[in-house]
């Protein structure tokens, strides 16, 4: 497969490295066509790797991974335009992080999400939110964390979610550890996990952790439900 | 111990029942001193159970569990006043749920939390946020869900958190499954888990599930940290 990876930060480079390792062709996109980070990455990654603008990468990719920061994702994608993204799977792995006075904040939050923003702005693109709840080392090496912890997918297009599941499988996430939350509006729920993730990151001192959803298989009849936990 | 349980909904009744079962004296508080729900609960629960206004209950309790809805918690506590709550542990188990057009919303969210609101309004009370991330059946019966899933505590007072841990232990949560997130401001993080909880509740069709934080014990050196997952 030909993948576009948008973003030259540690998340983008980690995902791009893994895609190359898996035998895919990868073009890394950045705002600056002469981005040193993208150039160094492409040189180190070998002949199947290339780099260019966000638009160059998006035109190249059969599927696109948006690994730019959540607050700049829309601007990056708007610089590409609708046409090169039309009909393509776009996996958004971002969180809309805005540090304020050294304190973690999110924007948008709760009444909207980056995943929804992208889907609204690019209605002909199949947007899937995934992987934003784990550190990039865990994204591509889930076995670094013990147990049957999971990742989530949110998106309106079933085929796009199925293709995302296959890629997650290549990364090491078996199908039964990929939880389909529903439509792209459920991106709100996973983006809102970041404050807890960040609090635990500060507590543990490292990012190699994740959440495992555990559930009763046959709940007792009459389980108390009050629309609240 | 003498406990006040504020709130006559399913969460309050479930917690109050469990406290009675554990041998504690419990007074259930409600806005209406003649609340039928509280009266029926007290009658069924036997001689160590009683009921009254929020203020009656708070005066009675050596510790207070606030199990009223997150959006009305402050009003309920203000009807008590500062004095009956001064010097006491108050465990807030609420979520600030506001359904809008059938859709889950939270208020406050992200820049504030119910836990913080209560602590600011009652500076002489030791507020601990806990248990809001699980359904009330799981609060008092963690074994209903398989695995080593956890609950969180957030609060500024270490002794109050230690007392909360002991109560959680009585409910069936061993100490190593109680994660101390830090000060009361971390209540924001756990309150923001509700949208994911609710999405999973709708998917599973029952509320008997929880999250287990899994982590690597010795992260590889050079774990990629970018202040983001």
Give, in order, the helices and strands of chain A.
EHEHEHEHEEEHEHEHEHHE
Instruction: Name the shape of chain A in a single word.
Output: globular
Total strand count of chain A, please?
11
**How big is the Rg of chain A?**
18 Å
Biggest interface pair, counts: A-B, 64 and 64 residues
Could you tell me the mean pLDDT of chain A? 95
Which secondary-structure class do the elements of chain A indicate? alpha/beta
Low-confidence stretches of chain A: none
* Percent of residues in beta strands of chain A: 15-25%
Query: What's the CATH architecture of chain A?
Result: 3-Layer(aba) Sandwich
Q: What percent of the residues of chain A sit in helical stretches (DSSP H or I)? A: 25-40%
- CATH topology term of chain A: Rossmann fold
Instruction: Count up the domains of chain A.
Output: 1
Write up this protein:
By secondary structure, the first copy, chain A, is of the alpha/beta class. Chain A has a single domain (2-204), classed as Rossmann fold (3-Layer(aba) Sandwich), CATH 3.40.50. Chain A is built from nine helices and eleven strands. In chain A, strand 9, helix 7 and strand 10 form a beta-alpha-beta unit. In chain A, helix 3 (54-60) packs across helix 4 (73-80) and helix 4 packs parallel to helix 5 (114-121). The longest helix of chain A is centred in the C-terminal third of the chain and has 14 residues, at 158-171. At the A-B interface, helix 1, strand 10, helix 8, helix 9 and strand 11 of A face helix 1, strand 10, helix 8, helix 9 and strand 11 of B.
């Amino acid at each position: 497969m030909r993948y576009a990876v948008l973003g030259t930060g540690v998340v983008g480079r980690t995902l791009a490295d893994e895609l190359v390792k898996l035998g895919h062709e990868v073009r890394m996109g950045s705002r600056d066509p002469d981005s040193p980070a993208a150039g160094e990455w492409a040189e180190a990654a070998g002949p199947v790797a290339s780099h260019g603008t966000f638009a160059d990468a998006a035109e190249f990719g059969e599927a696109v991974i948006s690994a730019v920061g959540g607050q700049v994702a829309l601007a990056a994608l708007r610089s590409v335009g609708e046409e090169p993204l039309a009909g393509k799977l776009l996996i958004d792995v971002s969180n809309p992080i805005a540090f304020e006075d050294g304190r973690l904040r999110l924007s948008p939050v709760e009444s909207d999400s980056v995943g929804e923003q992208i889907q609204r702005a690019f209605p002909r693109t199949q947007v899937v939110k995934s992987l934003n709840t784990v550190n990039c080392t865990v994204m591509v090496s889930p076995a670094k964390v013990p147990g049957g912890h999971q990742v989530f997918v949110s998106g309106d297009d079933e085929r796009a979610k199925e293709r995302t599941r296959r890629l997650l499988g290549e990364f090491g996430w078996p199908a039964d550890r990929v939880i389909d939350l529903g439509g792209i509006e459920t991106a709100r729920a996973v983006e809102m996990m970041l404050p807890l993730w960040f609090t635990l990151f500060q507590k543990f001192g490292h990012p190699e952790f994740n959440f495992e959803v555990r559930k009763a298989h046959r709940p007792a009849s009459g389980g108390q439900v009050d629309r609240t936990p």
